[in-house]
Every structure is written in C-alpha cells, then in structure tokens.
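anyone seen this seq b4? input:
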Amino acid sequence: LPHLVLDGAVLAATSVGASEVLVHVPASAATGMRRSIEERQRRDLDPCAIDVVVAPDRFLAGQESAVVNTINGHNPATPSFVTLRTVRERGVDGHPTLVQNVESLAHASLIARFGADWFRRVGTEESPGTALLTVTGRWPEPRVLEAPLGVRFGDILSLGTDATRSIAGVLLGGYGGGWVAAAQALAMPLTEEAARKLGSSIGAGVVVLLPSDICPLVEVSRVVRYLEGEGAGQCGPCVNGLDVLANAMELLAIQPSALRNGVSAIPMMCGLVEGRGACRHPDGVARFVRTALYVFESHISHHLRRGPCHTTAQPFLPLPPAVRRPAR
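predicted toks r here
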C-alpha cells in the first residue's frame, strides 16, 4: 500500500518542517513507487517534494547512516561511525534528517485519519496497535500477517504447545535478532518487551520456525558466514572478529572435533565484537550466535560427542544468491 506509506511520510515531513521526502527502496519496488508518486503529483496532494532513491542490494543498506550515505553518494550502503554526529543533526546534504521505517509511517497515517483511540483498540497499554510479521516455516510458503500486539504468539500462528516437538527453535527479528526456544516463543505475548526478556527482538517482524529435522548448527553457520560477508569492512570487529566467529561456527557445524575446548571460546569471541563496531552490525551477529548457543545447547552437545549431523536436507534459512564482493 504505497500511498499509505507516502501519506505517513508527508505527515512526518510536515511535522518536522522538512521540504523533501526521499523514499529509499530496493530496485524491485522503485517502479511502483515512482508510479504512485506521479499519481499524487497529478492531484497536487503533497506540500513537499517526493523522490525515489534505489537502495543497494546489501544487508546494511537500511541502517540510517548507510541510507544517508547512499543518498549523498558517499560510500553507498556503508554506515558511518556511531561516535560521529547522527543523521538527525547532519544527514542528507548536511541537513538534519529523519530516517523512519515504512511500517511506522503507515501507522502514523492511519492514526492521523482515525485517531489515537481507534489505534489503541487493539494491542496493550504499553504496546498499542498491530505489527506486520513475515513468517517462514509455519506454512509451505512464507506469509505476511498483521497481528495485534500483546496476543499470544502461538495463537497468532494457530499453534498449540504440541507443536514444539516439530520446531527446533524460533528466530525472532531476522538475522539481527535472536533465537528463542519453541515453547517460550509460542507462549510469549507479541511485544518487543517480551521478546527482549528472552534475549531477542521483534525488530523488522521477520519470524522463522526452524523444523526439528534440520541441523540448526549448519543453518546458523551459513547465516553467520553470510553476515560476515555483508560487513562494511571499515573496522576490526567486522573485518577480523566476524570472520573468526564464522570460522568457529563452521567448525561446530561440520568439524566439531577441531574445537578442542568445545564452544567455551565462542561467547568470548562475541564479547570481543560487541559494542566495538562502527555500527551495530557486529552486535546483531553476536546476539544471533549467543542465542543459538543457548537454544541449541543439546544439539551442540550431540555434535561435540558424536560428530556432525549427516543430513541431506536442503538449506532452510533464506539467503540471497552469493554475490562476489570487492576485496577489502
């Protein structure tokens, strides 16, 4: 619903006194978004200019300083160091800039239409409204759901406690989020607060139910190696730390006997990258790994005692096709 998002973006621009809205979207969405903007221009709907910027196909492209760098033409899809001035002070062309996600903008446009009381008819006092969830592993194909916040997660997915036998773990928040044990995930209310108590995050609403017949350590190692390759390559935690972490997870998955001290060193590796990067990318990878070590503890013990799983299952967690990155 591009016009719902654009309504919210124009509302935000009007609220902060901005003269321009820039819509940062992947190439696949750019044509449709430009068509929607042209429809609005023909009707003279908006008090500010709206333009489209195509996002590079990179994991970090949506980080707020990376967005601004793409728009400014400086190091596209590369975050700025967190210790520097934020984009709220100095962003696009040096001006203060608001970077906001499309779901929040869509909510803002609906609240403007129908009011806060309408919005609070669902959800909780602390977490009103709804959230969009992209769910993989519950049905044959991924689905996008809109769910009221505060509802039991298992009820949203129409799953009872007996479903936990077929679920190895639940990933909340995508690859920057964290793993949660199936029983805990299905019992928790859908709120950010509940997810954080379990060491994860709702984040962008990406949810994956990993089947119990898939080796979770192989899947985790695949994703960690992908995330290592998606780093910006501008600080030690990304260039060195994530590579060491990816190597350790690959050994745990396919050659666990090579880990002489088991997994005891892996949490220490996570600690060496957390809070030290130019952006929060290393922190997200560390959380992904830490939570996997906890949720898949029994599977790790199996690997260390008996060796890796011998499975012919196809890779489950979705990753984009391999892209050859420039040497760093």
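Strands lie at 20-25, 49-54, 130-136, 143-148, 167-172, 178-180, 206-211. The mean pLDDT is 92. kinda curious what u guys think
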